[in-house]
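Predict structure. Input: SEC7 domain-containing protein, 1315 residues.
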Amino acid sequence: MLVLRVLENVLQPSFVQKMTVLNILEKIAADSQIIIDIFVNYDCDVDSPNIFERIVNGLLKTALGPPPASTSTLSPVQDITFRHESVKCLVSIIKSMGAWMDQKMTVGDSVLRKSFKSDTSLERYSNLTAEDGTVPDYELQQEMSSELSNAATLEQRRAYKIELQKGVSLFNRKPSKGIEFLINTKKVGNSPEEVASFLKSNISGLNETMIGDYLGEREDFALKVMHAYVDSFDFKSMDFGEAIRFFLQGFRLPGEAQKIDRIMEKFAERYCKCNPNSFTSADTAYVLAYSVIMLNTDAHNSMVKEKMTKSDFIRNNRGIDDGKDLPEEYLCALYDQIVNNEIKMNADSSAPQSMQVNSLNKLLGLDGILNLVSWKQAEEKALGANGLLIRQIQEQFKAKSGKSESVYHSVSDVAILRFMVEVCWGPMLAAFSVTLDQSDDRIATTQCLQGFRHAVHVTAVMGMQTQRDAFVTSTAKFTFLHCAADMKQKNVDAVKAIISIAIEDGNHLQEAWEHILTCLSRIEHLQLLGGEGTPTETSILYVPNTENDEKLPKPQSLKRKGTLQNPAVMAVVRGGSYDSSTVGVNSSGLVTQEQIKHVIANLNLLDQIGSSELNHVFVNSQRLNSEAIVAFVKALCKVSISELQSPTEPRVFSLTKLVEIAHYNMNRIRLVWFRIWNVLSDFFVSVGLSESLSVAIFVMDSLRQLAMKFLEREELANYNFQNEFLRPFVIVMQKSNSIEIRELIVRYVSQMVLSRVSSVKSGWKSVFMVFAAAAVDERKNIVLLAFGTMEKIVREYFHHVTETDAATFTDCVRCIIKFTNSRFDSDVSPNAIVFLRLCAVKLAEGGLVCADKSSDDGSYISVVTKNDSDLQSFADMDDQASFWVPLLLGLSELTSDSRLAIRKSSMDVLFNVLKDHGHLFSRTFWIGVFNSVVLPIFSGASPVVTQGSPTLKSPRTDGSPPWDPDTSAAATQSLIDLFISFYNVLRSQLPNLVSVMAGYLKSSIQGPASTGVSALFRLTVELGSRLTRDEWQEILIAIKESASATLPGIMKILRTMDDIKLPESTRSSTTTTESSSEQGLTKDDIEDDNLQTAAYVISKLKSYIAVQLLIMQVVTDIYKMNLYFLAAHNMHAIVETFSSITSHAQQLNSETALQKKIKKICSVLQSSEPPVVHFENEAYQNYLSFLQDLIKNNPSISRELNLRSLVTVCEKILVIYLSCTDYNYSRDKKPVETPVTHWILPLGIARKEKMAARTPLLVSALKALSCLDRDSCRNYIADIFHLLVDLVRSEHSSTEVQHALSSIFQECIGPIIMQ
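Output follows.
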């Protein structure tokens, strides 16, 4: 303790004594094990003082010297000697710590844990609880009985001590908060008795005043603690004066009277309990205690002039013993005892120590350390080795002599160094920084720099990031590279120290690399400006003022004339702060020639550092471990960005070094290199998108150099690294606004691919993505340049693309498809379609016959939609088959392009490819292609009506433009051709094909319906003999359902006419105008909206009739062409189709009111009326002809049923005709009974016209009936005889009806009657 007292005496020390102490400490510090053992056995022991901490803090005080404005007995020489020696001791301490660490780590006694990377090591131990199986902290003082202990236990002890000191410090400020903290952290038990015992023992530096203040509190828990505290004393057989003296030795009475009252009241109660016969009651002891306290203060306070006499003391205590006086002899003895021997606390007070710790904490605040410029020490009293000090030390030794002998601990785990560093790093940083800043002595500054190096070594290896960065930053600041005008030799030595740190401890620097690399960048910059020769073009990059000025001019040298106005020179001369990246830029005024000469003289000092030393740092990157090299690259990228963003002269020093270290470390394992490239990739992208054209060009060129080197390395299959290192080209190509950069990237990528085409593997993906971005570029030269390279790849190097995997070929196809979307249609888009076909030819020439690897049921193939994820449905196929998928899907997507030429061309190519190379596909693959490539082209086809002609919507639902009729017809015919050509393979897909064609028929638009009809007819003609009866039934049922499906829609449309009201009008008796109708209506009489609605309804009705007639015609044609291939149930399907259509026609004709309204509107619109009557006539005529032919040519197919159908149809025809002759005749019922008329009026012109329209149909029906044989006539004639009679009595407009009727009566009815 004497040594520490001498060390801590700063103002009035003895020079000889203090030098002796410093020499002793230097020798102790030289032994690394002693330093460790001191910390372990003292600073980690709760019962021992912090010897190591006090040594370090004492050395700091000595290194800083006497505080400003204080008086000292030291001469300046002595003061400097003390400072240098103390710094030397601190350097020896940190050096020994590093040596011990290196020794232990080399021997391998312990391994650094990953937890070293955290700066919160104490948190692990501060939260230990008894529930976790660990001993509570307040019991740790009684353990550690073994001779050796592991580092974990010592860490707990150290953590316990630090936290206990924290609680004591809090108690000495706010007692209640301190007790609460100590209880919560389990340093003290939570019972009042345990807290009282802690306060009474006071082995942790509690302030006696604060103890008394807390004991006097009136809160419930504090009151219980005070009671427990007093009850812990045994006053038995003690004199009252001795008892109160013994009681007050552990604390100082508070100043508040109420607090004193509570304490004295409890003391009196306890004393009387221990000595029941001493006083009559506790009140006597209570009053006497107060008197004794007042007497002690009066007798021993120098401020009290008139002292209390013995008689005064006796008079003050009269009648206090329950109205009686205490014996006068007793009071006189008590008076003499107090006056002669003051009641006071123990001599070993911790208040000075607490004050010392607080002042030291203020001195070592982190902000003050890292930004140390000026400081102020708290004044302290001079301490001398006088008799009082010796007596106090002796008393401390005596007090501890009764304790058991302490256990000596020894550790070998380097983890203990973390706690030592946490204690000493602040004082060391302050001492080294202040000395290095204030002193120019070479020896002293060298010592400080060595201290920085050793401190960085220890903190870096131990993973203490905050401390490591603090030492590295301080060293970097002292290089003065940011302020070259003030540079001295010690700053050059700091530069050398930085380089040494980089080389020796590079594996542990992590984020601190940024400070070191920033220094290297500034060194190179200053050497460049101070040199005589011309630097290389990779040193300084000039930002041109105009777009055309892209050259890299030679930078200005400080030694050249005419540089006074150069911004970079002015910035260097003016200097700035360490953290400023724009030093001196915004300063006003020019620099003088004298200032430049001064800077040049200082820069000459940097000649001591050669370029080889700088390069050694970068070359040494090959030796960094995997974590360190990634941190190194991250830091170098940050420094490079700051260089390139310089407002005066953008530089590329760090950028060129990035290329170099990438080359140096290219042979690292793939996992490490992948992490490095992730950093570099982001860097190249961010800088490549720079607004500075010259910077972006240089970065892209650097990336090209790296890429060329990477392509020299062979990449195995299924790896993705080439794609990763080419990705920056893709991102910059997609995001850059610079035309020059985009063109440059296309040229670079083209050059790399064509020169290293055999080495490209996964890189094809990025290559095609670059070209895909170029395909949609706004500049024609970029598009043509990329397209030219793509042409060369497809025509000459196609096998390199397909030798990788299917994904690469997919990217190739997508890229070509992008070119089909180019705005330069005439030059690029058509040729891109040709390239897609060329890709198919290349695949076919390669003999990519798809092996069927799964069962033929194709269960894993599903109909897919057009998106990229659909390729997954082919994942289980043969690898060769997967090459076809992207090509076919790409062509399929192009069929919905907005440009007519592209649609037709892609359609032709797609179906030609399938027809020409479909024989290479397996059955399973063919089914997959048909469902996922071909059919989706037609899926969802629906009609849209424009102002011109109706068209068919594209088979996409993404808003693509509609198909024109020609494209639709060509696509459908190509589909039928394809299906016919590969019918044996695709036979199972007939229902899907028929469904597509049925979709055309359901469109209710004549154009698409005509396309569907033609396709179905051709399908049945080509495959008629090969279709089974079930397949025929599939086709015929689809046609029937198509015919029926449209009726609800058209009827719903017709119902909209009910809301249109036409004005009543009379026939004009005068002349009519051109716009007059037969009823006298004009366009002005009908609202425009109603007129448009009516026009739409009429158009839809005409289209519907046309489609129904087409369906009927195709059914008739299919029947005639395939009569002998159809079975009975097939014929029934045809019958149902005719029946359905005739029913539709009859339903439409029954809407007489609607027809009249339509007729009026058509006259107004001057358009033809919907051929409703014609539709009904044709429907019945075709139905009748079919039944006649069926009965004639297929008598075996349900003859009786067909005869019944024939008679029923004829009956309906007769009713339709008769309804035209007589108003009382209904289509749905027989004529009503009418009164007998004696004359018949002739028919009007209108009725005669209706009858004339129905006459051919009636004649056909009558002829069909006349052809019935005698038996059939006998069976069915009764049902229609009344109709025949009505025909006889009706007036006819044609003689054909009479002839047909005559034939029936003669050939059919007559023979029956004559029998």
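The chain is about 65% helix and 0% strand.
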